Amino acid sequence: NLPMAGSIMSALPVLLIYILLGRYFIRGLLAGSVKE
Hints:
- The structure is a single chain.
- With 36 residues, the chain is mostly helical.
- The N and C termini lie far apart (52 Å).
- It is built from one helix and no strands.
- The protein is rod-shaped and about 50 Å long.
- It has one domain.
């Protein structure tokens, strides 16, 4: 169980960053398409 918890803990920050970047990326795409 410990190795699994360690891998999850190390993967969480990456997932959070990925989700945040994805949201901003989608927002940027939508804003860009609306401006045009």
